[in-house]
Amino acid sequence: MENKKGGAGKLAPYCYIAPITLILVTFVIGSVAVSVALGFTKYNIMTEPVFRGIDNYSKLMSDSKFVKALKNTLELMLLIVPLQTVLSIILSVFLVANRKRFLGKLANSMIFIPVICSPAVVGVVWRELLNGKFPVIEKFFGLFGIEPSMLLGDAKTALITVGMVAVWKWMGYYVVIYSSGLLGISNTYYEAAKVDGADRIRCFFSVTLPLLKPTIILGVFLSVTNSLQCFDLIFNLTGGGPNNASTTLVVYSYSKCFSAGAAGYAMAISNILFVVILAVAMLQRNMMRREASEI
Amino acid sequence: MELVKKGFKNVISDLVLIGIIVVSIFPFIYMFLMSFKSTINAYDFDFSLEKLSLGQYEKIFQMENFERYIFNSVFVAVMGVILTVAVCSLAGYAFAKMNFKGNDKIFLFLVMTMVVPSEVIVIPLFLITKELGWLNSYRALILPLPTAFGVFIMRQAILDVPKDLMDAARIDGCGNLKIFFKVVLPLVKSSILALSIFTFVGAWNNFLWPLVACTKAEMKTLPLALSMMKTQFNTDVGLTMACAVINFLPPFIFYVFMQSRFKEGMTLSGVKG
Predict the structure, then answer these.
(1) Domain B65-271 is of which CATH architecture?
(2) pTM for the whole thing?
(3) Of B52 and B23, which is predicted with more confidence?
(4) Both A145 and A205 in a single domain?
(5) Which residues numbered 224-243 in A keep a CB inside 8 Å of some CB on B?
(6) Which of A12, A197, B67, B84 has the fewest Cβ atoms nearer than 10 Å?
(7) Which tens digits make up the pLDDT trace of A221-252?
(8) What span, in angstroms and rounded, lies between the C-alpha atoms of A257 and A267?
(9) Element (H, E) at B111
(10) Which residue in B14, B18, B24, B214 has the most chain A C-beta atoms within 10 A of its own C-beta, making it the best mutation to test that interface?
(11) Range of the domain at A282
(12) ipTM
């Protein structure tokens, strides 16, 4: 047995980690390396890449479609994140309060169904719902003076509509995250606040929110990185249109590579998005660390 | 008086709860109902029983390649789960319970790949796959599925396996691999299940990567087929909805039977912290 440990035993751990390491190095590290390298080239997949230095990146700034895609990406994020966060916190508080009742349990399970559903299905079904042929929807939006058939087809409302569908789809996901945060808050805090005479609203702002802060930081950053990468929903709802009104960076990069055949340029676009997401991730780490050291 | 007030409050919260339920599921109810309608009377919104039919489902299975799409989706998701669980638990076991040179460093290196968002690397991944000659193959769809996140989960779970149990098995003459199968895996079943759900739903719903990696019709998966139908049969809403239902059902059925596991699995990536 000692022998075994000395010879093959030393190599054994490396055999265990080899498969996943090979997969990740080939597909993830490899992809990042290819993307960084070819971002500096003019490359159309058919012919050999030609090194052009930072040409792609300097061209980006004068590419009005890129600027628009960047603007759309950030707008979509600013649309989704605050709404998603506020709504899901309120819903979580409400659902946690009603968690022991039948309807509360039912609502808790139903709200998660859109999360497990494929974005392609969500996109196709919502597109169908918003085509103006469904009287109930028509009437509902009519209350607010909105014509649903125009929501996805109008450049002014397309991006907002995509954002709303995304908020709807992912609501259950954030509700689960915030609910587990809420359930982690010990009841003694609320009892102490009650003794001090705080009403429920005061309790929410002075007890719940401060104690939920680490979860909120996590939830906000998840929401930010997810909304920055939104592709499937847009592809199936609007295809990026009308007139690029809902084209985000991922959509633009995809169409540049697979419709226009400018792979090098497309990777430069993705690299910009990658840097943005990396910066967000680093900011999150720092904030979480500070939060942890405060407690 | 107090009782009346409480009853009133309950009614209000019931109404809000019903509102949440309706908003969460009405698109799916619409999807189901429309899938049982024939094309001619699609928009008359008469859902009396005799007007509902399975015609759309019969029709969709006559569509070219449709059985193939279902097979592709099932095969890719199932193989993806098997591959992910296998490679991630093996690596997790090594990182958690074995002493070897570079253990921490390699683990950190792998975990770092988690910051790379999958949507961002689709184009270079396409180029690599093309270079390997794997476009339009199951390999292309399955092999990139395992992530460092799975290793992370499995390592965390296996760290909690008591060393005494493993030592006892070792005294009984078990080798590393036998300990892994007989002692470790049965103890981390719940993590394996959570990882399986997470991977299955991710693979089943995956859209952008199959869209890029598979150009041939017979290699497409269900979400792609659905997305294509939207443009091809723009008028045939019932048929499109039938396809959406078939797409929707597998994760939904699993969800009905394993709700809490599902929530745990799907939010794994968020709760890691």
Answers:
(1) Orthogonal Bundle (1.10)
(2) 0.90
(3) B23
(4) yes
(5) 225, 229, 231-232, 235-236
(6) A197
(7) 999 999 999 999 999 998 887 888 899 999 99
(8) 8
(9) helix B103-112
(10) B24
(11) 58-294
(12) 0.89
